[in-house]
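Morning. Coffee machine broken again, so started the prediction first thing and wrote up yesterday's gels while waiting. Chain of 158 residues, entered below exactly as on the submission form.
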Amino acid sequence: MKLLFTVLLNIVAFIVAPAIANAQQALLTDPVAFEKEHFTKRCGPDVSFGEGFVTQQDINNDKRGDIVINEGEITCKGEKGPDCTDDGCPHNFYIQVDTGGYLMIATAQIYSYDFIMRFGNMVLVMKMHPRFCDRTDSEPCLITVRVRGTKFTTISKK
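Came back before lunch.
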């Protein structure tokens, strides 16, 4: 009886797991509208979005306009950046794919970020809480990553 139950459980897992994985990787035609709809539902009609809520730029060096959403630029029920903490504010990184649409590839809790040119390619430098660099001092951690395709690769931590 245990064997039959285990086999049935495995069959269900093989059927359900791919469906869940596909749901997590759904392409969005408009991530800005998606994010605004989410926060409008959460915060109600008084939600507002600051100028820095959306940044459109190529973050993975493929010459397409990618999108970064800064949740610190949201005012929800009178509170600016409702999900911001001492670790920073959530930033969602969306990559535009060649088949059309956008794919969210990362969410990071950061203070700020910059794109800089390094060896002919743009890299992302994120200013983060010192604990992300395994430190206990107060100086922010600088994590430099290269974004290729849909992958973040850490180059350095300072």
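Confidence is low (pLDDT under 50) at residues 1-23. Going to sketch it on the whiteboard this afternoon.
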